[in-house]
């Protein structure tokens, strides 16, 4: 039964033993791999990690006594904490947007996911 269905499949695709793939098939396979390699960018991941570390460090520093923008630091604490919280809000909003648009902009999903990951890691440490 299995060999019969396999032979039927070979007949349907008109396979010839020893045949080489056509140039169109080779170009389509190589072109598909190039597109995937282009979509996966190390730069977006690295930038997301760096910005996530900065934002996470800022949010974490808001709660630590003795940090330059921590509790009881006056206007500097208000500005530093505000920047950190606004960065956190933008990161969460960007992650939601990137999840909805991940097919059209895969680099944005890489950036946003690494950004949120670094923020969460720093907040939990």
Features:
5 helices; transmembrane; transmembrane helix; 76% helix; membrane; 125 residues
Describe this structure in a few short sentences.
The protein has 125 residues and is mainly α. It is built from 5 helices and no strands.
Shape: rod-shaped
Gap between N and C termini = 59 Å
Radius of gyration: 25 Å
Category from helices, strands and their pairing: mainly alpha
Number of helices: 5
Helix content: over 70%
For the largest beta-sheet, the strand count, sense and barrel status come to: none
Total E-strand runs: 0
Strand content: under 5%
Order of helices and strands, N to C?
Answer: HHHHH
Stretches where pLDDT is under 50 for at least 5 consecutive residues are none
> What is the typical, i.e. mean, pLDDT?
84
Structural description of this entry:
- The chain is an all-alpha fold.
- Helices cover 76% and strands 0% of the residues.
- The chain has five helices and no strands.
- Helix 4 (75-100) crosses helix 5 (106-124).
- Keywords: Membrane, Transmembrane, Transmembrane helix.
- The chain crosses the membrane at residues 42-59, 79-100, 107-124.
């Amino acid at each position: 039964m299995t060999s019969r269905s396999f032979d039927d499949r070979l007949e349907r695709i008109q396979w010839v033993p020893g045949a080489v793939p056509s140039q169109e098939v080779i170009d389509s396979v190589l072109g598909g791999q190039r597109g995937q390699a282009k979509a996966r960018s190390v730069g977006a991941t690295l930038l997301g990690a760096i910005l996530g570390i900065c934002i996470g460090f800022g949010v974490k520093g808001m709660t630590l006594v003795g940090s330059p923008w921590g509790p009881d630091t006056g206007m500097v604490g208000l500005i530093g904490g505000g920047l950190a919280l606004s960065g956190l809000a933008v990161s969460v909003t960007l992650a939601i947007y990137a999840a909805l648009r991940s097919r059209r902009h895969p680099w944005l999903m890489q950036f946003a996911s690494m950004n949120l990951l670094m923020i969460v890691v720093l907040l939990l440490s």
